[in-house]
Amino acid sequence: MQSTAPTLSSSYSVITELVRTQKLALSFVFGPPRGGTTAAERWLFESFAFDANVNQPGLLARDETGSRERVEATWSTVLRKYMEVFDPKAAGKTIRIIVKETSNVVLPNSELELWQKVCQCILLVYRNPVLQVESRIGCILNRISANATSSLGVPPTIDPRTFTITGSPLVDPSTNFDHIDESKDESLWEQHYSWMKQKRDYTSLSTGFVKYATLHPLFEEPAVQKEGLELFRKRHPGSGVSDADVEGCVGKKLEDIVGLPDFFHSAFCEWRFGWTEFAEQVSCLKKNLGKPGFCQNIGLVDMSDLQADPEFFKKALAPILYMSTKMEVDHVVSEMGSVAGFSVDDQSSCSDSPTINSRKTSKESKDESIPTFDVTSKGTEWDTWFLSSCDWDKMGKTADIRPPTKNVVASSKFPPFILSEIHYGMMKFVELKGMVFGLNVRIPLDGLLRFKGVDIVQDYVNEVVNYKKSGARDEDLVRVQANENNFGFLSLVKQACLSNGHVIPIVESEGEGKGEKRDLDTFLK
After folding, report:
1. In the prediction, which pLDDT does 462 show?
2. Taking a C-beta distance cutoff of 8 angstroms, is the pair 378, 77 a contact?
3. Could you identify which of 35, 252, 502, 524 might form a hypothetical disulfide with 256, taking C-beta atoms 3.0 to 4.6 angstroms apart as the criterion?
4. Where are the domains of the chain?
5. What CATH class is the domain 10-130+278-396?
6. Residue spans with biased composition (Polar residues) (predicted)?
7. Per-residue pLDDT at 339 exceeds 60
8. How far is CA 183 from the centre of its chain?
């Protein structure tokens, strides 16, 4: 796909000049939604003492008039934050701001390049797609409870047993609804939604979910509609979607979206999960490596690995977060874990970087001069659509990166149309884990072993990509335990690993024949 020439704005021009004159240094964090980007942003903000943060400047409320210029609206938010922080008494100081977006908000071929031209550092944060997609389902459906879509015909009072969107049921009518009690004060929808989350069973979702997922302010913006549909055609070359089909959808408002052809709903339901555009964004970043005027200082961070060993990541990321020159950093994997060719256990290896002093949060200190992490209100409508439904307010309460505790559910707990998205995400996830691109941070084996068995998919991918490939001994590896609850996703991981050229290790079985070491395919038989 050819890159669309980015449309510059007056705010972006000002930002460019501030960066050129070293008055501003931007670090950009982005990745698939519900993949840990906000938690990583908060942790980086506190750990590396940024002066301010900007959370999702490109995630905008509805533009009822259709007159808003998307690029200007995004960059004016960044510029306003700079002006808030700027202190005339410290005019010679470089203000360091960390900006966070999700992959579904940054258009790969018309907006990402703008960030790559002005940012000192770009961090791609991603997560095991099984957990990420499960969390994303909840974020999408939360908007029903938040009353965000009532004006579009989907209020919190819907009856999940009968509700349809243009004839497509949101919930499969054949579902056993014994858990719904009409005598309760809780709405019928909330009862079913709570049941799904508690059971971690999403098989009751039906084709109406695909249509509901497209009810989002982003998808009535013409630039998003056009680029999203072009990426859909690229991912599905046999879709039969023509140029005329695309043009027929561009400019439609949210009220008209549910009546659009099925390909539109499929395209933007995929977009909501973030992997289609994230894959394209990685490709766009790689395309500009080595080109003058583009940030070469790029890092890849697996959120689950960060959770397992945050202190390792603090040392590992210091070189690129503080690097003054833009250069590509090659990462060399070893059993102990390494970054840029040196062992991070060697404290002297970071001697060229400033000392890392994690500051206290604003809640821990009464010093009003300490910058405060900002995920605050952006207006009533914006809050209804985004803040309340995604629990962003919780991100302002702690910078702790806590050890992973959540395992994946069985593949049988998802409907086919969501499983296909997990499959696609898994292919890209494994590709990212093994990618020689920028600074690909991988935790030491010891960090992984501390949490083995928590997330079976994470264990298996790390074993295949990080350690088996690097020559680690079998006895040093995490021994993946295969059982009936996880074999579906382990089989999916194996497909993704083989497609990316990785050697597949053996697994151990549980239950009958416990401890028997067999190839995964043999176990599945």
Report:
1. 82
2. no
3. 252
4. 10-130+278-396, 456-463+471-524
5. alpha beta
6. 345-359
7. no
8. 39
